[in-house]
Amino acid sequence: MIENYKFRYRTRGKYIYVPNDACIGHGQRIIAHMKRRISFPPYIYHYRPGGHVAALHEHIQNHLFFKIDIQNFFYSIAKERVARALRKTKLLSSGHLAKWSCVRNPYLGGARYVLPIGFVQSPIVATLVLLQSDIARAIERAITSGVTISVYLDDFVGSHNDRPTLQAAYEDVCAAIVAARFVANVEKLTPPENAIVAFNCDLTHGETDITEKRMQKFLAGDPTGASIAAFDQYRQRVTSRNI
Fold first, then answer.
1. What is the largest CA-CA distance in the chain?
2. pLDDT tops 70 at residue 40
3. CB–CB of 98/86 below 8 Å?
C-alpha cells in the first residue's frame, strides 16, 4: 500500500490530507505535465488572474444569475477516473501516478480510493476530470447560447438577461452533473434569480459586495489592525467594478 500523506485532519466537516514529500514530487510532475499539455478554457477562473473576484465581475453587466455547487467534488472522483484522465493527456505511468494522487475514501459509500483535498495535484486533476466530462459540453452549449459562465473549482455561476435562455442552461448543466456521475449540492443550488450569493458575496446587476454575514463573522474574530486593512483591500477589489 502506498503511503502518500503525513496525516489528515478535519475542518468544517471535510477531511484535509497533508501530502508527504514523495507525493508532492509526483504531484509536481503531474502539474508540470498539465501546464505543458493543457490550455484551460477562459471560463475556468481558478487558473486566471483575479480568481473568484474576476469570476464575479464577469457577470455584473447581466440581470439574472444562477449558482450550482458540486457536493463533495474531489472525493467524488475515483482513482480509476484519475488514471483515465491522466492517460488522455499522454502522461506516462498514469496508473502509478493515480495511485499516488488518491487516498482510501474517508466517507461511507462511493469508490474505495478517491482524490483528496490537500494534495498539490488535486485541483488540476479535478479540473481535468471536469473538462473531460459532460459538464464541460453543457457549459460550452450555454456559452454558445449567449450565457456567461464562470467556474471556480466546484462552484458554477451563470448569467444572462433572458430568463428562458438562462433557465435552459441551468437545467442543462444540472443534468450534465448527474450524467458525469457527480451530485449537485441541493442546499446551495440557486436557479435563475435577480440576485444571488456566491463566494460569500452578494451579486446583482451592477453590484458585487461582501455579504453582511461574512463581514460580521470577520469582525467577530477580533481581527488585528493588519487583518482589517487586508479585509478592506479585499472588499475594495470586490466592489471595484460596481456601476
1. 56
2. yes
3. yes
